[in-house]
Amino acid sequence: MRMIVPPVALRRTIDGNLEKFFRQHRLSSFKRAISQLCRFYNIRRPKIEWYEYIDWGKTAGKTYEDGQIHLVHPENWKRGRIYNTERMWIQMIYHEMGHFVFWTDAERKADAFTRQMVRGLRRLRAERAARPGSRRKSMNGRHAAVTSTNRRIASSASRKRTRVQSGRRVGKRARA
After folding, report:
1. pTM greater than 0.70
2. Helix (H) and strand (E) counts for the chain?
């Protein structure tokens, strides 16, 4: 799957702002990074709440469907974790923002999916109804089609088997 991501120059700026926030704990750097990311995707900024730990320390961040994101603050990230590096924290931010970006406009995406699934179905129904003898909707019609397909497959397999066996027989007779 191909994804549209910001250009490298913008990604470096965003990454630099997140690094600055991790080291200096200046909220303005974090807000600037998130704003740049949201401006690129043309979405609103998420509501972010900071926590010492989430889910008894098992979770680093959590994104909710209403656009709210709960994150572990960098000061608390450094304490009591095996993987407490700056890079891991920044990747966690990207991960949660990925959730936020792909959950936006869920209704429009669901409607588009529905339209794609339904497109062309009415025309096929009309064609089937117009064909003579197609009124049968029982399993027997489907079963018969499957059976005839199975017969074709079985007959082609038996032809292949016969050719191979006959080739072996000819080979054995030729040696003797």
Report:
1. no
2. 7, 3
The rounded distance, in Å, linking the Cα atoms of 87 and 16 is: 11
Cα distance between residue 65 and residue 74, in whole Å: 24
Please, what are the averages of pLDDT over each run of 10 residues along the chain (176 residues)? 80 92 94 95 93 81 88 83 79 87 68 73 68 56 50 51 45 47
27-41 and 8-24 helices, crossing angle to 10°: 160
Amino acid letter, residue 47? K
Q: Where are the domains of the chain?
A: 8-107
- Could you tell me if 14 and 67 are in contact, meaning their C-beta atoms sit under 8 angstroms apart? no
- Helix, strand or coil for residue 70? strand
